[in-house]
Amino acid sequence: MKKEFQMVATAAAGLEALVGRELRDLGMECQVENGKVHFQGKQEELMKANLWLRTADRVKLVLGQFPAKTFEELYQGVFAIDWQDYLPLGVQFPVSKARCVRSKLHNEPSVQAITKKAVVRKMQKVYARPDGVPLPESGPVFSIEVSIRKDQVTIMLDTSGDSLFKRGYRTDKGGAPLKENMAAALVNLSNWFPDKPLLDPTCGSGTIVIEAAMKALNIAPGLRRSFAFESWPWIDQELWRQLKETALAAQQDDVELSIMASDIDGRMVELARENAKRAGVLSYITFKQMRLQDFQTNLINGVVISNPPYGERLMDDEGVSRLYQEMGETFAPLRTWSKFILTSDGQFEEKYGSLADKKRKLYNGTLRVDYYQYYGERVRRSDSGSQA
After folding, report:
1. Is 339 within 8 Å of 292 (Cβ atoms)?
2. In a designed cystine with 176, which of 182, 225, 313, 324 is the match (CB 3.0 to 4.6 A)?
3. By three-state DSSP, how is residue 109 classified?
4. How far apart are CA 56 and CA 10, in angstroms?
5. Angle of CA points 375, 377, 381, to nearest 5°
6. What distances in angstroms separate CA 44 from CA 2, 3, 7, 18, 41, one per listed residue?
7. Are the C-beta atoms of 164 and 58 separated by less than 8 Å?
8. What ranges in the chain are assigned the alpha helix state H?
9. How far apart (Å, rounded) are the C-alpha atoms in residues 79 and 73?
């Protein structure tokens, strides 16, 4: 089986640079482009990327790239790949996804069928199986994906299985949940560090504060889940066991954190507590049922990160406008606090009552949103007597 791999970590639009930074922090060189980050390595890099990436969607192996404007060219390009380097005899190899963008080949079901045919014929040749005799497909799953953009074909294997945002700690998502990798991105795009207070006043199922605590405690986001590659016959199971043990040993349980989460809905607060418990961070977060406008604090240099209801999410327009106004009024006295608020409402600043210092375009699923960033006035702790 193959020892070195070309890989790609996919990401939501606007988050690619964060994924690139995470890969570099893991010691991997990479190249960032729209929607994906390219890198290479051995099994260890494949495993580490799945285990540690907080803001990516999936990790895939890139098996081949070639031009194709006809189905014959697609067939020949797929057939030319050394499938025996990846697929042992007897495994399942569905062509689970095809995506065609601005290409001569645009019928995605047909692209899937031709790709499957080419792989089957190559496997029959490699393993000396006669035509007409079906290949056995009862073993582990190797999910094949085809991407055709401007007539350039990329053939990939999905190593992750479920998307990386599925950490395994959410028992119930509640209404309009924020994906875990997007929540991690909001934390990474803020100016919060573990020595600062953190508040999510519209915490919902608690994803933002849970992801912040996991990052502060250096908890690998993939520790509580499984991945597609784990069942592959050629994976070094001992190496995988060692990497997970190393990740467990790297957790920093003695970190002191001041993380607060509140929501007006008591049911959501209880759900957030349960999710935090499953994530192993409950003792580091203070949860409270509370109206946003009732928040008061003497702490300084804190950070607010909020994903309040917006657009199609849970509230009518009048309720959303009132909430944004209350946010502006409640946070105005917190001069040393920075505020980071995600919304699709183009009139947010008007309703909030002040212009953001910066805003960043992101995508929450398919919904285009803005991340409004308000930076607090920095005050040294020794200059303030208020620490409670």
Report:
1. no
2. 313
3. helix
4. 6
5. 125
6. 13, 10, 12, 21, 7
7. yes
8. 16-25, 43-52, 71-79, 108-126, 180-188, 207-216, 237-249, 266-279, 317-331, 348-352
9. 10
User: What is the per-residue pLDDT for 386?
Assistant: 43
CB burial readout 77-107, b (16+ within 10 A) else e = bbbebebeebbeeebebebeebebeebebee
List of residues 6+ apart from 165 with CB closer than 8 A: 57, 179, 180, 181, 182
The pLDDT, as a whole number, for residue 171 is 74
Among residues 305, 345, 105, 299, the alpha carbon closest in space to that of 207 is found at 305
Cα atoms in the 13 Å half-sphere on the side-chain side of 243? 21
In the numeric block, which tokens belong to residue 274? 């349960």
The β-bridge relationship of strands 143-149 and 152-158 is: antiparallel
Q: Give the chain's residues under pLDDT 70.
A: 172-176, 310-316, 381-388
Helix (H, G, I), strand (E, B) or coil at 239: helix
Task: Give residue 131's pLDDT.
Answer: 80
- pTM, full prediction: 0.93
